[in-house]
Structures are given as structure tokens and as C-alpha cells.
Amino acid sequence: MIRVVNVSKSFDEVPVLKNVSTVFEKGKTNLIIGQSGSGKTVLMKCLVGLLNSDSGQILYDNHQFSTMSFAERRVIRQKLGMLFQGGALFDSMTVEENVIFPLKMFSTMTLEEKIDRANFCLKRVNLENVNHLYPAEISGGMKKRVAIARAISNSPSYLFCDEPNSGLDPLTAIVIDNLISEITQEFDITTVVNTHDMNSVMEIGDKVAFIYKGELWWEGSRFEILKTENKEVNDFVYASELMRTMKQ
Amino acid sequence: MKLFFHIGRYFMLLVQILKKPEKASIYRRQIILEMDNIGLQSLGIVAIISVFMGAVVTIQTAFNTDHPMLPRYAVGFATRQSIILEFAPTIISLILAGKVGSRIASEIGTMRVTEQIDALEIMGVNSSGFLILPKVVAAMIINPVLIVLSMFLGIFGGWVVSAVSDVMPVSNFIYGILYEFAPYDIFYALVKTVVFAFIITTISGYYGYFTKGGALEVGQSSTDAVVTSSIFIIIFNLILTQLLLA
Question: What's the Cα-to-Cα distance from A116 to each of A81, A105, A153, rounded to whole Å?
């Protein structure tokens, strides 16, 4: 479980996050949604420690992450997996080397065990016979899946996904969404997904946190979001003609 | 003010780079890979430039010292001293600053803008150490080898010119090459080379690591890395010459 308490962040005295408090529960797919520029990426970067919040607390299973030293953070970070928007696979490494990398750095497994683990993770994301290809040789959807395999290779307790569907067609996007949801339940991890894709919300949103102008504006489940009377949430959810027609 | 910001951030990065590696075996493997990337892949350009520059230095020295008061072997002597003291360590390091420095800055800069460095950080890896330290160590090991090779090839270029043309007799050239040879000159050249290798890799790594933006900024970082490294090589050349030869 990750608890966020009154987190604020400003850039050049422009507030981007304002006293955000929420809880991301274990075994659930927690979604952060909001318009572009609303502050959801900044919130995620604060959660994983790529940015330091100006005030407030971030607690990983009651461990105060925001005030930890570099060395203490490193221990927590070894329990994190993250899927970046562009995949962020290492260009100079093959698919297999990418998946093995976290194990190489932090596990005491033998090479054979590492390869077995990599194959297991790649198979789990429905990828086979791509071990020796380089990231430049695979499609966008495959890159995302390799990135998920890399993120889960070290058996993380927390999985973060930043816009996992960006640049993917709707069918591939649903495959990635379902994969994230299945992995969350299968490994009983805390997953936080940053998205503005309503399809993802409806597909996997166990808990949805709506960020509006840097504030936590609304939170609830994917079923509740369709019924809420909150104007800003409705403007976001029913932004398209299709959704408005469906609502009517 | 911006200069102090860069100096402060550069030294803070150095502290991060020099922290204890997570897994020494991975770093050792990276060092070997980088020795190939930085050193062996620069072998061709170093060899070509050294041979031709050695030849040109010999011809120019011969034409400009054509005086009855000066012995002919002085051409060989002057060629050797020019190559060992200045050409090989400084000029080749400037060339490496262009070739290796731009490569390091653009490689690390691209990793920054494509979030690969963030991915390393999230995994708990000391990204600056993992990416820059092996390059620094590799360059400090392999660059002296390149420079020694450059010295031999530069002198070889001069010998070829004296052998195939009538610039001067080969025997005089060889006598000049051997005349009053001081091993300390090699030591001086290698000390400079190691310092220049550190400058090239850390400054290029610095510019790459703190790249912000996209492809345009990666190009800018690469250019800044080469320009800054070259300036610092020239400055430290003066300082080290004063310290070691004066």
C-alpha cells in the first residue's frame, strides 16, 4: 500500500500539486487520471522519487519514503517496477538482456536462473522468440510488453505505469491494460497507472483518482465515475461525442 | 553565476560517480566494453592522423631548419620532441574529445531524454556511476595506449618521409630520434593523457547526463561537451606543462 499525505510541488513558484492525499491499495489497479498538465505525471514522479515533493509525505507500507536517504531509497526502489511511456528499454541491450538487467544488478541468481526468470516474464507478457532482438527491431506494443516483463522480473511489490497505452491502437491498448491488471492480482502488488485513456479506466480501474489543476478532485471506482455529478469529472469523462451520446 | 552553477553541479556529479558500485563485476564488464568503444574504435583515426602529422612535422622542420649551423639530425630530434611532448598527448586528445566526447554526450543525452536514465534510477541503480564511471576508467586506461601508439606512428611517418624523399638522410633522422632521449618526456606525456582522458569523459558525461528536452538538446549537449572539453584540455595542458616541465 502507498499512502500519499498532503503532497505539494511547485516549479518556479508555480504550484503543480496542491496538498494531494490519497491511498493506493495493494492488489488493486489504481489509476491517476486527469487532463494533460493537471499534475498527474508530477505526482507519479514524486511517488517514485524522481522528483522530491516540497511538502507532505509518501509512505510505502508505512515507511516514510520522502525523507529517506539515497541509500534507504535504493532499498525501496529495488521493490519498484516501472513501465515508462516510451518503454525506456536500453537500446544497447537485447530484449533478454533488458529483462535480466535488474536481476544482474541486485540478485544472487546464477545466469541460468536469470535466463529462466527472463523467459518466464517474457512468456507471461505473451512474448516468445524475441529474446535476441534489440528494442529497435520490435513494435511499440512489444516494447511495452518487454518493459512490463522487465518491471516484474525482480518480483516488485509496487508497479508504476506512466501512460501505458500512449501510441498504441485500441486493441493492443486493451491487451496491455489487461496484462497490467492480471499481473497486479496474480502477484498481489500495488499498481499505480497514470493515464488519460477512458478505455483504460473502464477496463481496469479498481480505484480512480482524478487530478484537476494539481488537486485531488475526485476519487472512486470505475463504476462510480460514470454516475458522479462532479462537473469537472464529467467534462473529462464525457469529453467525446461518443461518450456524450452513450450517456444520453 | 551560471558558471558557478555548472562547476558545483559537475563536482556533485563526480561525487555520485565515485560512489561504490552496486555490483563490481557488472562495472568491470562495462569497462571492457567501453575500452572497445572509446579506444579500439578510435584506433583508425589516431593511426592515420599520427602517420601523416609525423610526416608533415618532419618535412616542415627540415625546410625551416635548413641552415649550416644546425646539424641535420636536429630534424629527427625536433620531430621526436614535438610528437612526444605535444602532438601525441594534446592534439590526439583534442581529436578524441571530438570523437569520444560527442559520442558519450549524445549516448547519455539520448538515454536521458528517452527516460532510460530514469528507468535505471527507479531500479535503484546509481545511474551516473553506472553510465559514466566505466567510461572514465576505460578512457584513463586505453587513452595512454593510443597515445603511445600515436608517438610510434608519428615518428614512423617522419621516417617514411626521410626514407622515400630527399628531405634528409634516413641515418641522420634516426640519429636525431635517438639523440638525448629522456624517458621523463614519456611520463610527462602520459600524465597529460590520463588527465585529458578524465576531462573528456567526465565533462562529456556531465553534459549528456543533464540534457533536458529532445533531439535538438542532445545535439546541443554534444557540441557543448566537445567545446568545453577542448577548452579544459588546453588550459590543463598549460598548467601541467608548467608543473611538470618548468
Answer: 19, 16, 10
**Among B30, B122, B128, B135, the residue to mutate for chain A (most A Cβ within 10 A):** B122
> How far apart are the C-alpha atoms of B143 and B92, rounded to whole Å?
9
Q: Which three cell numbers stand for residue B172?
A: 641522420
Give a three-class secondary structure readout of A185-205: HHHCCEEEEEECCHHHHHHHC
Q: CB A59: neighbour CB atoms within 10 A? A: 15
Q: Is A101 helix (H, G, I), strand (E, B) or coil?
A: helix
Name the residue with cell 464525457: A238
The residue among A68, A91, A75, A96 whose CA lies nearest residue B22 is A75
What predicted TM-score, i.e. pTM, was given to this entire model? Answer: 0.88
Enter the ipTM: 0.86
Contact B116 A160 (CB under 8 A): no
Q: Which of residues 9-68 of B touch A (CB under 8 A)?
A: 22-23, 26
Give the 3-state secondary structure percentages of chain A, helix then strand then coil, rounded to 5.
Answer: 40, 25, 35
pLDDT band at residue A193 under the 50/70/90 scheme: very high
Amino acid at B133: L
How long a stretch of residues is chain B? 246
With CA atoms as reference, report the closest residue to A44 among A190, A189, A194, A195. Answer: A194
Q: How far is CA B25 from each of CA B22, B28, B40, rounded to the nearest angstrom?
A: 9, 5, 22
Strand partners, A80: A158
Residue with cell 646539424: B71
- Nearest to residue B67, comparing CAs of B56, B80, B81, B78? B78
The answer for residues whose C-beta is within 8 angstroms of residue B59's C-beta and 6 or more apart is: B161, B165, B167
Q: Which three cell numbers stand for residue A157?
A: 511489490
Q: What is the pLDDT of residues A134-182, one digit of tens each?
A: 999 999 889 988 998 999 898 889 999 998 888 888 888 888 888 899 8
Determine whether the interchain pair B121/A78 forms a contact, defined as Cβ–Cβ distance below 8 Å. Answer: no
Q: Which alpha helices (DSSP H) does chain B contain, by range?
A: 2-17, 24-34, 43-64, 73-81, 92-96, 102-113, 116-123, 127-164, 170-178, 183-209, 215-245
Q: What structural domains and CATH numbers belong to chain A?
A: 2-79+159-247 (3.40.50.300), 88-155 (no CATH)
DSSP 8-class letter at A93: S
Q: Which residue of A has its CA nearest to B113?
A: A88
* A48 touches B122 (CB < 8 A): yes
Burial class (CB in 10 A: 0-12, 13-18, 19+), B191: middle
In tens, the pLDDT along A42-52 reads 999 999 988 98
